[in-house]
Write a structure and sequence with these properties.
CATH class of one domain: Alpha Beta
Strand content: 35-45%
Structural class: alpha+beta
Strand order of the largest sheet: 2-1-6-4
Number of strands: 12
CATH superfamily of one domain: Putative peptidoglycan bound protein (lpxtg motif)
Largest sheet: 4 strands, mixed
CATH architecture of one domain: Roll
CATH topology of one domain: Ubiquitin-like (UB roll)
Helix content: 25-40%
């Protein structure tokens, strides 16, 4: 009986020792696994890959879920995210999430059309684009007016402060120009005709005077012969 009790006690002790050893090994491993941290690196770039804000990072236990939110950046709007989702599960390897932005088209070039008195003769034209984008404007045709002056650069690059181009026009009547041209032509014709008439009259007078002189000479010759 005593021998059996000793055997049982020895067996129990061995089992307890094994369990203690296993517990001592498993628990630290479990705790290590539970306390290991994963990292998510968050980057902010424009659609060309340029960094537009400092990167950030968040950490959490491996296996836990994470989610990062896009932040607002002045002058930019959301364009996309890489990978396509901004949430997932922490892993042993660092996770990289890139929020992509597109610059907002809030820079403008305003084109104005005025007469010489400063009154608007055509609706303003607005060119919108990104800072640094090229632009080009022209003096549009306006009925009854002729372009006479341009204030500002007709072409260049859009600036952050914006730009203003002013085209100035003067009143221009095509019909009046035609009448003036016709009148001028008629005037020239009249002058030419008048000059020709004067020349004709002068020539006629000279010829008449020459004939008169010839007749006087003939009469004088006849008198001397008699």
């Amino acid at each position: 009986m005593k021998s059996n009790l000793v055997k049982i006690s020895t067996k129990s002790i061995v089992i307890m020792l094994c369990m203690t050893i296993l517990f001592g090994i498993i628990c630290p491993i479990a705790n290590y696994a539970e306390n290991r941290q994963g990292k998510v690196i968050v980057k902010y770039q424009d659609k060309d890959g340029n960094v537009i804000s400092e990167e950030e990072s968040i950490q959490g236990n491996i296996g836990d879920e994470y989610e990062v939110a896009r932040k607002n950046i002045e002058g930019y709007k959301a364009y996309g995210v890489t990978p396509k989702t901004s949430k997932g599960i922490y892993t042993e390897e660092d996770i990289e999430t890139i929020f992509v932005y597109q610059k907002v088209k809030d820079e403008e070039v305003v084109v104005k059309y005025i007469n010489q008195e400063g009154y608007y003769i055509r609706r303003d034209k607005t060119i919108t684009g990104y800072e640094g984008d090229p632009y080009e404007t022209i003096a549009e045709s306006v009925d009854g007016y002729k372009h006479v002056k341009t204030s500002g650069k007709e072409k260049g690059e859009i600036e952050k402060q914006g730009k203003e181009i002013i085209y100035t026009y003067k009143v221009y009547d095509k019909n009046s120009k035609t009448e003036w041209t016709t009148a001028k032509t008629l005037t020239v014709i009249v002058i030419i005709v008048a000059v020709l008439i004067v020349i004709f009259i002068v020539i006629a007078k000279v010829e008449r005077k020459g004939k008169s002189n010839n007749k006087v000479d003939e009469d004088n010759n006849k008198d001397s012969e008699e």
